[in-house]
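Input sequence (56 aa), recorded before submission:
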Amino acid sequence: MAKKDAVKKRKWFKKLLLVLVVAAAIGWYTQQDESKKRFLKHLGKQVPYLPARYYA
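Predicted structure, token format:
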């Protein structure tokens, strides 16, 4: 029984941590100026192609 509780707590903690990281990233992004936002959007569009470019 204690093992199930520990697993539930761990899953809950991971979800909470993920939500906090996403909230921090959104907060940081909204503080950037327009040129930095454009750069980050452009970089984000390239992310799916980066592994193939450098590790293929």
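Checked by second reader. The mean pLDDT is 88.
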